[in-house]
Each structure stands twice: as C-alpha cells, then as structure tokens.
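Summary for the steering committee. One of the milestones for this cycle was to obtain a three-dimensional model of the protein with 0XW bound, which we needed before selecting residues for the alanine scan. The sequence and ligand used are listed below.
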Amino acid sequence: MRITRVTCYRQYQPFADGPYVLSGGRVDHGFDSLVVRLVVRDGSRVVEGWGEMSPLGVMYDPAFAEGARAAAPLLTTALLGSPVASVARTLDDTLKGHPYAKSAFDMAAWDAVGRLADLPLHELFGGADGEGTTLYRSIGRASPEVMAAIALDYRERGYRRLQVKVGGDPSADLAGLRAVVAAVPDAQLYCDANGGWSTGDARRFLAATTDLTYVLEQPCATLRECLLLRPHAARPMVLDESIVTMADLLQAADAGVDGITVKIARVGGVTATRLIRDTAVALGMQVTVEDTGGADIDTAAMAHLSISTPAAQRAHTVDFHHWVTVRNGTGLPSTDGGLLRPPTGPGLGIDVDPTVFDPPIIDEGE
Ligand code: 0XW
Ligand code: MG
C-alpha cells in the first residue's frame, strides 16, 4: 500500500459572513487552504485520498499558508513510493516541527486508508456515539449592537451554541457579552479570549460576570498564565491555542483544566489528533475536535473525529463549509438542528471534484 502520486492545490475560501475579528485587532477575511490528493496503490487496487489544511491568516497560530506551500515539495518527495500506513512517521522524519504543514498530507492518507478498508473513518476511530456533534458559531469582536444582531442571526440559522470573542478591554468585552446574553438568553456560551488577556484582565472579567453562565476559553496567551489563573476561575476552563503537544495536555489536566480543543492542523494531522483526543478522554476531560480552517474536506475530517469521541465528553465543533463561499467536496450530510453529522461512505466519505480548483501547485508521480 504505497503512495504513487501526490497532487497539491491551493484554494482561497472567502468568509461568507464578513471579516473574522479576534482580540488584539486581529482580522481575517477568508481561509487560504492547501488541498492534498494522494493516490495509493494496493496490488491492482488504486484509491485516492484527500486532505485539507488552512491556518487562520498569520495571526492565530504559529502557522501560515505560505509556509505550508513551501514545505509541500519536500513532503511530496518523501511520501512518493512510501507506505501509506506510516505516513505520520515519514512526515516527522522528513521535517522537524511545522505540524500544520503536514496536516493535509496526514489527513489524505487516512482518507485513503478508510477507502481501502471500505469503512468510514469514524468506524476506525471508535465508532459513532450519537447522531451528530453540536455546532457552534463564533461572534467576532464588534459593537454590542452588532454582536447581538449576529447572535440572533446564528440562532435563527439553527446554531444552539455561541462562542463570543473577548480578550480585549474587559469592560468592552463585558458589554458585548451582556448584549449577546440579552439577545439570546437560552444559548450556551463560550467566551474565547484567544489568549488576549493578562491574568489581571481575565480576573477583572471573571469578577464582573459571576451572574452569567459560560465556559472560559484560552484566557491568556501562554499555558503558564492560564494555569496560574485556573484556581481563580470558578467556572469551567478550556484551552485551545495552548494545546499543541501531549506534554501540554498532561500539564493542563494536572492543573485542573476542564477541557481542550484539539485543532487538527495545530497538532499535525489526524494521527496526532486521535492520540491527543483519546488521552484527553481517558483523563476525563471535555474534548472539542475542530480545525483552524478549510471547507468540505476539512469539515468531513472534523465530523468523523468528533462523532467518534464519547458523547458524554464531546463539546462541539464547527461546520467550516458553511463559513465560506466556496466548496471543495460533496456529500456532507445536512446540519439541520445544529448538528454536524458524519458522512457514511468509506474514508472521509465525501467526493472531491478536482475541477473546482485552479491548476495544481504540485503534481508528482504516476
Ligand atoms: C473558531 N475557530 C475554530 C476558527 C478559527 O480558526 C479560530 C478558532 C477559534 O477557536 O478561535
Ligand atoms: Mg478557541
């Protein structure tokens, strides 16, 4: 079962709902995605596998689209002729670090493995627990009136859970949060500072919101600051940007962090995501599996990894194919009722039509 051809495409995916605004004045307008196709031969049988990775601009994680494209020729050369089963090892032996640059290749290998096994990926990852995974939408930083209007719009579109972006001036953050709560009092809320607060800012925000119910997400930039804050936050805390390695996960669990968000690109692909997810589950934590960006291909991967996470410990995920104005696959089930359902076909279970892309940036092998 060797990889015989590698093709890479670039797809720009503008946001459907306008600019995405995080703390610290960070803004982005779309995902700049790397799509990878691997052709795998098993005797006379030939299958294709697809993978996708997009960072959120250059300002969210230590990752950037140009970096992924720069690493792609090196990774392509290493994978050509190599066994699909050891893709993660081959990628790590070839390039130290740069997990995001490896993610689409690793995902494509898993799609191919699922097709060869004739099983949807969630069957290989623990089996489906439930019908679908609760979807949330992010409300970027804006005036309280605009944030309230966006919250109402998302609720009308069926999203039951909202992630309110905070992490700036705590009193402005508070005004935005209270406007969202007034507009949709029944929504389940996460306040995501994306690491924008000092420990002092976070403590001010926490003190001013003791009457509200929400989960606190990534309050400060470093793992150390978040863990120093942990005993002072009398509410659940989940970490996202700070969870990159298994060591980060273990440190967070030991300090009483309640949950993690595993982003497929951040940790380097589906292989590493599974390992971190399963360890977090064994540690009794709440787990979200999602990613930094992408469209249908990436959403399919999130759907399989999420539905195979035990429902009692699964938080939520995102439907990126509805965040952007372009598509790159067909076959994702409906998200009615605010649920991301997994495709049932083998591998990722979606069909990718390469004619939607511009000519490939890499096409090697036969
Ligand atoms: C909401 N997200 C999943 C989308 C962007 O990649 C950032 C991320 C977050 O948690 O802020
Ligand atoms: Mg987050």
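Key point for the committee: Residues 329 and 352 are 4 Å apart (CA to CA).
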